[in-house]
UniProtKB/TrEMBL annotation:
GO terms for biological process: translation. Residues 31-50, 65-105 are annotated as: Disordered. This is Small ribosomal subunit protein bS21. Belongs to the bacterial ribosomal protein bS21 family. Residues 78-89 have a biased composition (Gly residues). It comes from the Bacteria. It comes from Microvirga aerophila. GO terms for molecular function: structural constituent of ribosome. Keywords: Ribonucleoprotein, Ribosomal protein. InterPro entries: Ribosomal_bS21, Ribosomal_bS21_sf. GO terms for cellular component: ribonucleoprotein complex; ribosome. The gene is rpsU. Pfam families: Ribosomal_S21.
Length: 105
């Protein structure tokens, strides 16, 4: 695996490397190899992963064929990244100013 460092920007290169490792499944494999896994457990895990892949493929095919409805897309907020729940457009951490009531004299 190779990552180019541009303009001495090591932080960006590290982010790219982590993303590539995540995509390839290297981090997951390293975590699994920390402890011994019995052959029977390995077989069970691999079988479960195969079943999940097959179900996902069948679900995508059914959506493409129109047999089931596609899931609703998650709302995307204009604020961009890491806002957390309830931080969409039009929301602010402070309460909105209340209109002043008319005073009778």
């Amino acid at each position: 695996m190779q990552v180019l460092v541009r303009d001495n920007n090591v932080d960006q290169a590290l982010r790219v490397l982590k993303k590539k490792m995540q995509r390839e499944g290297i981090l997951r494999e390293m975590k699994q190899r920390r402890a011994y896994e019995k052959p029977s457990e390995k077989k069970m895990r691999e079988k479960g992963e195969a079943v999940r892949r097959a179900r996902k493929l069948a679900r995508k095919q059914a959506i493409r064929d129109g047999l089931i409805a596609a899931p609703k897309p998650k709302p995307r907020f204009a604020g961009g990244g890491r806002g957390g729940p309830g931080r969409g457009p039009g929301t602010s951490p402070r309460p909105a100013a209340q209109p002043a009531e008319a005073v009778k004299a």
